[in-house]
Fold this sequence. Notes:
Pfam families: DUF1877. This protein is of the alpha+beta class. The chain contains six helices and five strands.
Amino acid sequence: MLGVHFAITADQEKVLLDADGDDDAVGELLGDIEENWDDDRLKVDTDKAWDEIHRCLTDGSLDQDGGDYPLSHAILGGRDMHDEYYVIYVDTAQVRDVAVALRGIDRAGLRQRFDTLLPGSDYDGPLGEDDFEYLWTDFLEVVDFYQRAAAAGRAVLFTAT
């Protein structure tokens, strides 16, 4: 599954919230956002690293309720808007909280969290040095993205399909 964050407009947010509970309407909006997105500053692709980023920011699991707010909301901890795949909504106040919390994690802190991921638990991904470098690069992009989203006063929509 490839992950993408979008800092959605107020109009997109309204349509999303109005569609809550209707997977077809949410999927249609998501398709429209993906096809017509034109501001790369307010979008970030995390490829497959979203999984490890979420685990490192929470309790090590992919549990959407795992970990503590606000770090838990950087990837999967927001409001789940779809039953078949991840479409996660984080409102503007939460985006500001996440942006502040992410600034508090440096390379050593993320490395320490990464080193606690245990193969054989529910995590079966790679844990080598190159894997951490890949994670660190994508993590920095997520941090920068949340700073821009918060500054723009935007809600965030995370998708992994």
